[in-house]
Write a structure and sequence with these properties.
heterodimer; A: 93 residues; alpha+beta; HU Protein, Chain A; 2 domains; two-stranded antiparallel sheet; B: 103 residues; two-stranded antiparallel ribbon; 3 helices; 6 strands
Chain lengths: 93, 103
């Protein structure tokens, strides 16, 4: 499923809403999550999962082709931990 | 300035401010989005949200684990897990100091 499939399904399930409003709702939700992570906040969506930001220290890497050393700066990476309900849904049988 | 935790209620509040819906309908729509993503992960194993990231379901095989407290061997059954791969846009948003050097 892509974002546009998601919008289509939500629009079908909510015929009283305009397509453009459904688009804005979906965009707002993912944008809020991204914005929270950019601030360094955690996003905990009970049942679905939690997003957090993990920090990776700067390190010296190597170009695998040339063997040349390169400085890899410190960086933050988003991390997702699956929530209980979603985990159970995926493993129900 | 500690980190705070953003919840479903915060997302619903953002939707409420962005679109002219009631608070309760905004909350229901946030839940619908997350339910739809969950359902689709279960049915199709992948959800792609452009400029945000991709959720992928991976199947992990059975392996032998250990109870860290007692050292007892316990089988870890095969299971399905979700892996989130952030998009380039999201990575850059979280690392504004690196964005200009990203290829």
């Amino acid at each position: 499923m892509t974002k546009s499939d998601l919008i289509k399904r939500l629009a079908e399930a909510n015929p009283h809403l305009l397509q453009k409003d459904v688009e804005r709702i979906v965009a707002t939700v993912f944008d809020e999550i991204a914005e929270a992570l950019a601030r360094g906040d955690r996003v905990e969506l009970r049942g679905f999962g939690a997003f957090s930001v993990r920090h990776r220290a700067a390190r010296t890497g190597r170009n695998p082709r040339t063997g040349e050393e390169v400085d890899v700066p410190d960086k933050a990476v988003p991390h997702f931990k699956t929530g209980k309900d979603l985990r159970e849904l995926l493993n129900a049988d | 300035m500690g980190e705070r935790t953003v919840t479903r209620a915060d997302l619903a509040e953002a939707v409420y401010h962005e679109v002219g819906l009631s608070r309760s309908e905004s909350a229901t729509l946030v839940d619908s989005i997350l339910d739809e993503v969950s359902r689709s992960l279960n049915d199709d194993g992948m959800v792609k949200v452009s400029s945000f990231g991709t959720f992928v379901v991976r199947t992990k095989g059975e392996r032998v684990g250990r109870n860290p407290k007692t050292g007892d061997e316990v089988p870890i059954l095969p299971r399905r897990v979700v892996v989130f791969r952030p998009s380039q846009v999201l990575k850059e948003r979280i690392n504004p100091h690196l964005a200009e050097t990203a290829s």
